[in-house]
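Take a careful look at the sequence and tokenised backbone pasted below. I need to know what the token row says about the fold.
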Amino acid sequence: MDLQLPDPIATVLTFVHPLTMWILLAMAVYALKLGLKIRKLRSAKGEEKKELLQAKPAQKHFALGAVYLAAIVVSTVGGMAVTYINNGKLFFGAHLLAGLGMMTLVALAASMSPFMQQGKQWARNVHVVSNIAMLGVFGWQAVTGMQIVQKILGI
């Protein structure tokens, strides 16, 4: 199957994925910050606990996580689709593996939510470890992605 997009559309679509991923990386770091506030909230007392509760970190973390899950899946699949459309194939390598790994880890972390709401500590541990691993893989993905962008730009 040979799909040909007009050059201006193909150019724009080529850079939507990397831009989206940088935004998602920032979102992941913010979600980590919220997660740390939630952890702090569990042991806080008095005025500190009251301030943390007013900031609603758990609700923000949960909502951000839902948006993040959807966005990472759409961006990963979209990046693969644009690569296929522009090149007629996917390039098997570090970047593709990192993207698929990230998507898997995010899905695993998100799937722990119902169990965490039941107070299961093992689910919280899986959620945290999955997301820390995802951030590590995201760093690798960012490096390999910038290498691809440099190739596209001829730098």
Notes: The chain is about 85% helix and 0% strand. The mean pLDDT is 91. The chain has one domain: 7-153. Residues 31 and 62 are 9 Å apart (CA to CA).
